Amino acid sequence: MRIAKITATTVTTAALALGLAACGSGETPPTSSPGAAASATGPKYAGKTLSVWRLGDSNPAAAKYMEELNAEFKTKTGAEVKLEWIPWPQVADKFAAAATGTGPDVTEIGNDQVPMWQSQDALTPITDVAREGDRSQIPENLYGYETVDGEIYAVPWGAGARAVLYRKDWFEDLKIEVPKTWDELVAAGQKVQKEKGEGVDGFAFNGGSDANHLLAAFAWSEGGEFAVKEGDKWVGKLSEPGFTKGFETYTGLVKTGLSSKANLTLNTVDIRKRFANNKVAMYLTAGWDLPGIEEDSKGKLKGDKLGFFPLPAKTGGVAPSFFGGNDIALWGGTKEADLGKEYIKLATSKTWADRYAKEGGLLPVYPDTLAALNEDPAQGPFAQAFAKAKAFPADPNWSEADATKMVLQNAARSVIEGKQDAPAALAAANKELEEILNQ
Description:
Layout: H1 13-22, H2 34-39, E1 49-55, H3 60-77, E2 80-86, H4 91-99, E3 106-110, H5 114-119, E4 123-124, H6 127-130, E5 147-148, E6 151-152, E7 155-160, E8 163-167, H7 168-173, H8 182-196, H9 212-221, E9 227-230, E10 233-236, H10 241-255, H11 268-276, E11 282-285, H12 290-296, E12 306-309, E13 324-331, H13 337-347, H14 350-360, H15 367-371, H16 380-386, H17 398-404, H18 407-416, H19 422-437
Parallel strand pairs: 1-2, 1-3
Antiparallel strand pairs: 3-13, 4-13, 5-6, 7-13, 8-11, 8-12, 9-10
Helix pairs in contact: 3-14, 9-10, 10-18, 11-12, 18-19
């Protein structure tokens, strides 16, 4: 496997603020160059078909968005779009198979997945279009995962921050105030469990494929880190005080009974289904779960019964969220690179990118649109979480540690099941994490 050197970009509130300031001067937004516009007109690509992958499960809003986006693309280029939805649990296997065989022309991709798939030669650089036109307004710091050895391999499409989704109707019935501290959250969860009966999680433990989003929030709020780069080597920090305190809070969700021990391996998709079936009061996720909840509950759980609030840090204030998001990229083996770039340019134009974020439950990557959400009742909690967002180690091998070998998930399970104490489990996990990141 070819390992590339990744451009380090620190995700900070200051950097985001710079992006906001740069776009707040009242200047006319840049437009695509005449040459770029000309390449996307007329029948130049008539008769061609572009294959596009979207990740996750389709829903009415997403399906409508893609139908309208693809219709405009056909009008501009003359080309048809063959769209395929890839459920999240199947994404890793689907990408792995495509990397050695036939893949799409254009794909949606998680931003933290870009370094790994770039190292597998599964992505084609799109530096020539990534910062032109409307995309020049996207803050530079949002291209941290996407930039490898000076080349850009994906364009941010929508930003991801997580907040706590809760049963607003339950809270109102039980006269529970929206928690602003960790102690208040625990008390709220315990009260729901007492009133709603056995089998209900007050706050759901995530121990599945995306578990580190929850663990990270607890660890980062205590000043912990997974690993840091020292010179050219990754050094694990799992045994240091900040991380161990966050790990204790994470495993404590089960050890103290706030979440059931029977659900140790569930990921967000699994938790969403339990939430839709009245088995969860609160869990960490994002707005993209709402359509699935409505569908899973057969229409019984809609927006008026649900709400979000920022995850409180145990130390006070708002816990940092993972700096996540979805990008759009050109596949490495595509034979339609020029046509694929035209699709990426259209999809990430301000109009379509803002719609993608709004209709998909994500945060917009265009600063003026993001700034307008701070006071929004629905999106405000995510905007607040995003202001403190942090990223996982930007290394191609992080995905192996995170989702394939599930290093931290296994450590947590070992502690919860009483097979190891926390110091021993974290020491072993730290050794394994260093070995994986430094391959």
